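Hi P.,

Sorry for the delay on this. The queue was packed all week, but I finally got your sequence through. Input first:
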Amino acid sequence: MTQQLNAQVFAYAKQLADSAFKAQSVALKGLEKVAELQIKALEKQAEATSDFISGAFETRDIDGLRALWEKATTASRENAERAVSVTQEIIAVTQKTAESLSALVQEQQQAANDAVAAPAKKAAAAK
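Then the structure:
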């Protein structure tokens, strides 16, 4: 009896550890994708800012200042659009990660239900 109980506890612990490993893997992949998106956005914003600053240093007259003003407006709009786009992509990645984690939880619950039901069915059949 004790051996059977130990085997069930061991099987459940192994299953729990496997599920935790899978959940960690899914979460880390999601975090990696989010970090990658943010780094790419930061790189693009840094490029746009450096282009603007180099243009500001080259401005010598009022016409150059007007052109710089228009360039600043365009750069601000593009940065805002890029930020919205990256935010949408991050939300999509987060949603996919949450769905994957939810699926893992459902698998774990189903496996636990099966593990509990199997001995009960076996005992009922033995009577």
